[in-house]
Structure formats: structure tokens, C-alpha cells
Amino acid sequence: MYTFKNKRYLPPAALDNLIVQNNLYDYTSTLGYSVENRPILVSSFGSGKRKVLLWSQMHGNESTTTRALIKLFSELTLKKSSLLDNLSIKVIYQLNPDGSNSYSRLNANDIDLNRDAIRRSQPESKLLISLFNVFKPHFCINLHDQRSIYAAGNTNLPALISFLAPSFDKSKSINEVRMNAMAMIGNIYKKIKPEKNWSIGRYNDDFNINCFGDFFMSQNTPTILIEAGHDPNDFGRNLVVDEIYKSLLIFFTLFAKGNQTNSNINTYLSIPKNHDHLRDIEITKIRCLEGFRNKIFIQFYEILKGNEIYFFPKIEKKTPKTLYGSRIIDFSKYTNKPIDLNQNNQKIIEKLKLFLNFELFLRRIS
Ligand SMILES: [Zn+2]
Questions:
Q1: Which of 35, 181, 230, 306 is deepest in the core (most CB within 10 A)?
Q2: Ligand 1 centre from 101 Cα, in Å?
Q3: Which residues surround ligand 1, an ion (CB under 5 A)?
Q4: What is the domain partition of the chain in residue ranges?
């Protein structure tokens, strides 16, 4: 397992520090409490007519968009941005503080809050619904992190950001509300400038009314899902914080001006769909005991130990689908010694480690 200094572990105490350091404390109050009685904070910005509700870290281990929110609102308040004259914004930085503390997707009752929009069995889900009902936003933004397995389209380009205008029914119909969300995403997408090593994806729109995005769409409130993705050179996800920040700023700039009058949805539909076929490392030309073997794939899994995130490499030998590596390593350049690939994960990794510096891959930029 490997670790390096990064900011992906964002427990409530770290969020509190960010709020204070970025002078957001005066805008912030307690919305309610989590299962383990941790405060769930909400900030209110602006006094305009057009109302936006955003929430992040409903999955506790997805902190990238939270960091983007802090950066954005710290800047908008510091500059006294005119956007805040036209908008009223409510932001829940961390809907799932217990999961954020334990670096878990789930809440303290092991419930996925994004499957609890209808049952509302959890205090966190109830708080989001009640804020939605009282505030009556005109637009919602649902913020997440996606795994590094997602490519933009049938390519090996990682989806650094993925967008979705969620469905509100099983047949994935497009009504005026969904069209509004699609047009907004299309307009944001046109202004993002992808680099040569990443692209933008469109998230799966299968309908699930238990997801908050789908539910809010069914309540006639345009909602967009934004997923922060992964640059293979940036396991700390610092680069994508900036891209999410820019996307949100574009959103606010457009939304402050009014509805998406140009409700052309073709740009949205032209965004390549997410494909889940990427793996962190593809190692080719490993000589195995039986002779040459084509390749193996390695995916890093994140584990919280103490106060740090560790990355645990796991080998995927065979899968029914074709996989692509975000980074490809020609192992024959390192050694021609055979490696016994029939051993368990840990033993193979130990062998590969004699030749490859996994730590260096993780640290590349972050
Ligand atoms: Zn998520």
C-alpha cells in the first residue's frame, strides 16, 4: 500500500478549518445533524431571485467537489461578485459528515444516501429534502466523485468531468425541465477546454427515483449531476478541483443571466458516454513462467488508515470486457525475468515492485 500527502480525506474537522480559513464562517449555519450527531453545515450566499441548491459529499469519500465549492465561494465572496446580486445560493458542503469522517461512500447506518430520496430513512436525506421543500430552488447541482475507471466514450481518455441531466421516468423522456438541464450542461461543456490527456463524459441516465437527481427532476426542478473524475497523473485530484470550479463558475454566470433560452440539447447529446473500461495501469509484455503473456491491469483501491488515504494496487487478470490502461507500461523494458502470475495479488505485486516504482506513479503531480 502506498500513500502520499493529498487532500482527498476531508473529514468534518478539515472542512471546518477550510470554512474558517476561507472566511466562509459568517455565511454558514447548522442545517441539522447526522446519524452520529455531527453537524451538517449549510452556507447561504447572495440575495437574488434565482435560487440554486448545491450539495456535495453525500458520499463521504467524494471530497473533490467540496474543495471546488470552497475555492469558488471563497473567491465570489471576497470579490463581492455581482453574481451574488442575481442569485440566492444554498450549499451543503458535506451532506454525509459521518461517511466523510470514515472515508466511506455510505452513512453511519451503511445507507447510500443517494438511494434514499423516496424512503428518506436517514436524517441526512430528510435534511436535504426539507431544505429543498423550504428553499424551493430553481436549479439543483448534485456533486460527486467518480472512479478512475471511466473513459469519455469508447476511448482510453479519462472522463475528468462527467455530466448528467438525470431522467425523471423509466422511458428517459425529455420534457421542458430536463431539456433545461441538458441545455445548461451543453452550454457549460462548450466552454470547457479539455487537455490532450483527458476529456468530458456523459453519465449513464438510467432512471432510479431513489436518486436525488432523478427525484428532484420528477418534482420539475432542473438538476444536474457533476462527477469529478481522474487525471492519471493526479491521484490527489487537484487538477480536477480547478476544472469543477470553472464549470460551476460558468454555470452561475449562465444561470444568473436567465433561463437557457437557447435550449438546444444536441450539444449535450454529443458528449461521449462514460465507459467503465479504464484501469489505472496496464502492464504489457510481462514474461510469465509459461512464456509471454500479453498484459495485466492494475487498479488502485483507496483505504483510510489513521488520517491518510492509502492506495492499494489490485491486479485484474481476466475480465469479459476489453480494458484499457490509463497508463501503459512495457515491462520488457524493465526485465525479461519471468514472473509467476499464478500467485496471489500481494505476491505478484511484490515481484512487480522489484522493477516498478508504484509510488512514483501515484505521486506524479499531486
Ligand atoms: Zn457519489
A1: 181
A2: 15
A3: 59, 62, 144
A4: 2-275, 279-363
* Superfamily name with CATH number, domain 2-275: Zn peptidases (3.40.630.10)
Distance 1 CA to ligand 1 centre (A): 24
Cα dihedral 216→217→218→219 (10° resolution): 50
Distance 234 CA to ligand 1 centre (A): 19
How many angstroms separate the alpha carbon of residue 188 from the centre of ligand 1?
Answer: 21
Do residues 34 and 124 lie in contact, with contact meaning Cβ atoms separated by under 8 Å? yes
For residue 185, how far is its CA from the centre of ligand 1 (angstroms)?
19
The model's pTM is 0.96
For each of the chain's 366 residues, which pLDDT tens digit applies? 888 889 999 999 999 999 999 999 999 999 999 999 999 999 999 999 999 999 999 999 999 999 999 999 999 999 999 999 999 999 999 999 999 999 999 999 999 999 999 999 999 999 999 999 999 999 999 999 999 999 999 999 999 999 999 999 999 999 999 999 999 999 999 999 888 889 999 999 999 999 999 999 999 999 999 999 999 999 999 999 999 999 999 999 999 987 555 668 999 999 999 999 999 999 999 998 887 777 899 999 999 999 999 999 999 877 778 999 999 999 999 998 999 988 999 999 999 999 999 888 888 876
Give 208 Cα–ligand 1 centroid separation in angstroms. Answer: 14
CA of 59 to the centre of ligand 1 (A): 5
Distance 366 CA to ligand 1 centre (A): 22
Q: What is the 3-state secondary structure (H, E, C) of 37-95?
A: CCEEEEEEECCCCEEEEEECCCCCCCCHHHHHHHHHHHHHHHCCCCHHHHEEEEEECCC
